[in-house]
Amino acid sequence: MQSTVTPTHCPYCALQCGMNLTPAPDGTVEVSERADFPVNRGALCGKGRTAAAVLAPDVRLTSPLVRDESGTLVPASWDEALDRIAAGLGRTRAEHGPDAVGVFGGGGLTNEKAYTLGKFARVVLGTSQIDYNGRFCMSSAAAAGIKAFGLDRGLPFPLEDIPKSGCVILVGSNLAETMPPSLRFFTELKENGGTLVVIDPRRTKTAEQADLHLAPRPGTDLALALGLLHLVIAEGRVDEEYIRERTSGWEDARAAAMAHWPEYVERITGVSVPQLRETVRLFCEPESAMVLTARGPEQQSKGTDTVGAWINLCLATGRAGRPRSGYGCLTGQGNGQGGREHGQKADQLPGYRKLDDPAARAHVAEVWGVDPDSLPGPGRSAYELLDALGTDIRSLLLMASNPVVSAPRAAHIEERIRSLDFLAVCDVVLSETAALADVVLPVTQWAEETGTTTNLEGRVLLRRRAITPPEGIRSDLEVLHELAARLGVEKGFPTDPEEVFEELRRASAGGAADYSGITYRRLAEENGVFWPCPAAVEAVDEGEDALLDPPLPGGPAPETPDAHPGTPRLFLDRFATPDGRARFVPVSHRAIAEEPDDEYPVLLTTGRVVAQYQSGAQTRRVAELNAAAPGPFVELHPRLAARLGATEGDPVAVVSRRGRAVAPARITNAIRPDTVFMPFHWPGEGRANTLTNPALDPTSRMPEFKACAVRLEAVRP
Length: 717
Ligand SMILES: Nc1nc2c(c(=O)[nH]1)N[C@H]1C(S)=C(S)[C@@H](COP(=O)(O)OP(=O)(O)OC[C@H]3O[C@@H](n4cnc5c(=O)[nH]c(N)nc54)[C@H](O)[C@@H]3O)O[C@H]1N2
Ligand SMILES: Nc1nc2c(c(=O)[nH]1)N[C@H]1C(S)=C(S)[C@@H](COP(=O)(O)OP(=O)(O)OC[C@H]3O[C@@H](n4cnc5c(=O)[nH]c(N)nc54)[C@H](O)[C@@H]3O)O[C@H]1N2
Ligand code: SF4
Ligand SMILES: [Mo]
Description:
The protein is of the alpha/beta class.
């Protein structure tokens, strides 16, 4: 075993905080501060600090499991488990055709794994039916970003630009809990004289830091953004010159905003006209300003239009593609950004290429050594795929997601999963979804394998192997290699991550997310490289010259003086649209899919707490985190609690058209009286997703996690 300190990155969220790992003689690993990484400068949240606890053999899977004749999962050899998966998937394909085999991936997978999983689906299985949990995450922001800017990269600038801005509007992000080390950038913003506006139906830890907190009714952010744009126009704060020179489509967007009078917007959102005016003042007076969205406004059945409306606000005021200004999305999962670029998405090929673009198909087919016509077309989105399990889709290979806990309308999805002919799950722990599988494969984790991730800034990072994985565990790449071979494809599925990355570089070359100039060596020497990063400066199209930025300190390795420095800041000279202009999108307010009524009079919104991660599959196995956040709860206003006759800690039933969940009451003034909040980290009785509405955004296919109608019932303890 190596005994040196290995600098690497956290396994959890999209900040990808830098950390040092040191193996101890007893087989455990110590996580310690790594100060040289600019995103967290040594700081870690409790999840990152305790991440090594999930490496322990007593909480993780240590052997493949197969379901025996009595229906119990029992340990099996790798050969038996892999043979069973190949037989299960192969049988479905033979009997029902390739599209009856589904693949579901995750934004926690490294770029190498996401790339290989997408290739495996299209080349080995020949199925179009692949999607991933990122659909539930930032797909609305991605769709809006592509419409407006021609490109989707979470933040178009490094986090270190935030303190230099004049004002930041944070829409539906609770980053004090979801990305704690990033709070520092906002504290520095205020120290530098900038202001912070937070928009959240709850007065969260993040909202407590704000100069101004707006608490709209859940699901009304679209109206709110339109109301702000209306005031920008009415108060003569539009940047006409910028609009003329750098945008298109203003007239229609302007007309749509003019229909959203402040008083009308106040009625929809519950945010007062003076607060709207104050927001406009704070946003427009400084020389620079930013809007950052997270899941609050995005996880709505109109999330794409909502983000579009916030982008319109930025464009109308000349706050995009200029220094210290812009629109950005705070992505979520460890590789939420890279995971959406390299082909595990239903409509996508590596390099952020479109599966229905003949030139993209030809390019990738050549790298893969297959006939372009053999590549399937676009498939279903994540919820639609899960909803089709047991009917159109008979077998599923699932890697790095736990939909039994995290999918909307989860009881229905759980029932769909149970109705499959065959389910195989690769995971590090026996998640609630893995527990339903016919075969479970135990895979290596972050500290045990090398791979790249791309953080919320578009910074590609190298996670390094620091320890040897336990005997009997294999990597996701080894699994896909073995399955490909068993399904008749001997070549093209290497198990060495660097070899995969070398192929990914070629596949992504010339695409929107171009990684061709990035190598493992550069990543080891620099603190990450921002994409697009074409192979050499000469290779860049003239039209893309503008994407070139001055090198970051530490720039390309000296041995490769011609190397492209990467692109920390996007759009400074032109947007990534064909004419270089950003596009306004005309949008109008519409209601959420399920408005409260007499039977279901209260709004439910959902989200996260600092000590648990996602479906909790990993963090519920860490004692320190469980002590801090032991179980689900229903956050509600004293007025609602009084009406129920509930006091702090009493069990409360939350009932929607999809089901019923029970959890203890947490009574607080920090939430709107018409709204309750539940975190979604737990299975069982308190599972928030039993209640949520799978109404989908028409463009991004994002479900409406953030707003549905419920009623509350007192439960006799
Ligand atoms: N501790 C922790 N950190 C995480 C994660 C985790 O599970 N746990 N997950 C990671 C991932 S994958 C993601 S995507 C990010 C998510 O990061 P965030 O987006 O910050 O997390 P959420 O708690 O889902 O939602 C943020 C806020 O949106 C508010 N909200 C609810 N409805 C609305 C609405 O209609 N409008 C507005 N404006 N706000 C609303 C909620 O009250 C909540 O405070 O966090 C990442 N970091
Ligand atoms: N109600 C409600 N529901 C939500 C949300 C919400 O705000 N409200 N947010 C949504 C969002 S933004 C997201 S991102 C999803 C996330 O929800 P999930 O997709 O369920 O995410 P995780 O819980 O992170 O599941 C990842 C699983 O993969 C395993 N794993 C981790 N790393 C690896 C790896 O390298 N390989 C393999 N094979 N397995 C690995 C973990 O152990 C875990 O079991 O939830 C969504 N669901
Ligand atoms: S903020 Fe995110 S990346 Fe940083 S330590 Fe916490 S979970 Fe890990
Ligand atoms: Mo997410």
